[in-house]
Design brief:
The chain is α/β, with parallel strands linked by helices. It contains 13 helices and 11 strands.
């Protein structure tokens, strides 16, 4: 396992405070966790987004992420984050999902350099904050980044995280590594690599090929195997403890009873230990009662001992 710094990507619906805190407590090995992006709803930051980044909810090192959007909206989000005491903000120019992108947000904003410029100018006016950026190489074209990269001088980002796909690919198809190599060779800012880093071999390969990287950002790979950042801790006992901490967090906070708790817990198994015993994993996803779910989870962990 290489000693390159590892960062945790924000994934909507998965890496909330409960997941981040549990991972930090049980596995660790992550330099910084990023919150799923904060957006406006009815003219204000969504309450659940703000609650997720509040100091009383977080024990892991955290940088909030705002959704790249219209200048005035981005400024409003950033100002709210600063009010909470944060000194760093990550700007999301990477979200590929059509309901977001078609409204000139996330990676969809990469088609409109003038809108990116206006957003960055607005954000640069907020004092006492440093920025980083997480981005795709483009939305429809793989060289959109060439028109966007010069604009980052407005905020002088601490680093830029690059996912070398275009937005319309979402998470399918090959990584466009030729474009990443061109960015690596020319970008005046420290870079973090993100995309299809599913195992320790991939971490070693990327860090060897691009030795000047500031780090590697883990996403779906660490959702599947939370020990990816600390392979020596990949034990059934630790996986069980990780699950227990998340379960206890949701059990204490969710107000919708067993049904809501069951739905929330089952969602983590979209990725979690997906390579474990297939039949036992399937029983977890098919459980309709909380007791059945807990029994299925215990059986899976027992099978790993």
């Amino acid at each position: 396992m290489t000693n390159i710094p590892l960062y945790m990507a924000p994934l909507q619906g998965y890496t909330d405070a409960a997941w981040r805190n549990a991972h930090h407590a049980v596995f660790g090995g992550v330099t910084m966790y990023y919150s799923p992006f904060i957006r406006l709803e009815s003219g204000d930051c969504r309450r659940r987004d703000i609650a997720d980044i509040s100091a009383d909810r977080n024990t892991a090192p955290l940088t909030p992420q705002l959704l790249g959007c219209k200048a005035e909206d981005a400024k409003k989000i950033a100002e709210r984050i600063v009010e909470l005491g944060f000194k760093a903000i990550d700007i999301n120019l990477g979200c590929p999902f059509p309901p977001i992108a078609r409204h000139h947000k996330g990676s969809g904003l990469l088609c409109y350099p003038e809108e990116v410029e206006a957003m960055l100018i607005a954000l640069s006016g907020i004092k006492g904050i440093t920025y980083s950026v997480k981005m795709r190489i483009g939305y429809e074209k793989p060289d959109d980044w060439k028109r966007i990269m010069p604009l980052f001088s407005i905020i002088n980002p601490d680093h830029i995280t690059i996912h070398p796909r275009i937005g319309t690919q979402q998470y399918k198809g090959e990584l466009l590594m030729d474009q990443f190599k061109e960015i690596y060779d020319s970008a005046p800012y420290p870079l973090i690599f993100n995309g299809d880093v599913m195992n320790s071999e991939a971490i070693a390969k990327i860090s060897a090929e691009f030795p000047r990287l500031k780090g590697i950002m883990l996403g779906r790979g660490i959702l599947c195997n939370p020990a990816l950042s600390a392979p020596e801790k990949a034990t059934s006992e630790n996986f069980s403890k990780f699950h227990e901490l998340i379960y206890s967090d949701y059990q204490a906070r969710l107000q919708g009873g067993d049904s809501q708790l069951l739905t929330k817990m089952k969602s983590m198994w979209d990725y979690f230990l997906i390579d474990a015993d297939h039949k036992l994993h399937k029983k977890i996803l098919k459980a309709n009662k909380l007791n059945d779910y807990l029994s299925a989870v215990e059986n899976l962990f027992s099978s790993m001992e």
